[in-house]
Amino acid sequence: MRTREEPHVFPLIVTSAVASAVPSRLPRQKWAKRPGGGSGAYADVRDTRGGTMGKVKQQGDVIDVILQQHNLIRSLFQEVASASGNERASKFKQLAQLLEVHEDAEEQVVHPMTKRIASEVADARIEEENQAKKVLAQLKSMGPDADGFGELFEKLHQAVDAHATHEEKEEFPRLRDRCDESDLRDMADKFQQVQALKGGQMRR
Length: 204
Hints:
single chain, mainly alpha, Four Helix Bundle (Hemerythrin (Met), subunit A), 5 helices, 3 strands, 8% strand, elongated, Hemerythrin domain-containing protein, Hemerythrin-like
């Protein structure tokens, strides 16, 4: 029988996303609801250059952390699409950096565990990430002011959103079902550590 543990507080590593993009509370998926409820904990949201951007209410396992970042990513896609000039370039840089640290942490921490449970699901998610990385690299190379950026950016938007949805519907329910809560909490800690390291590398 699984035992309920008190939520830990993890710093959510993101990249200069504006505080208004952070929801005060994320809607919970039906499959993500845990027995026993629990109100979670408040954690500082920090960008990779330091400084607290605000507080979000988060539960303390890796799936909750990822769901929060999915929300941030979706918000930033909308902000890039609606911005122009220097603001668009700045927000695209934030989005690109967040996507890079997010996917790197998933590939190192989350997908290996999924592969032990459902290898075909993990392989499909990794392939989606590899395709998205190629498009992101093209966008970074051409820059937000280049002809064709908008069309290619929308292609990335659709691919990333579909990828996140696949994770939420196909991967995370399996992890919830097969992993102990203590394991998911440990994965959250490792996920944050990978992102902190990646963020430090990107600042240099």
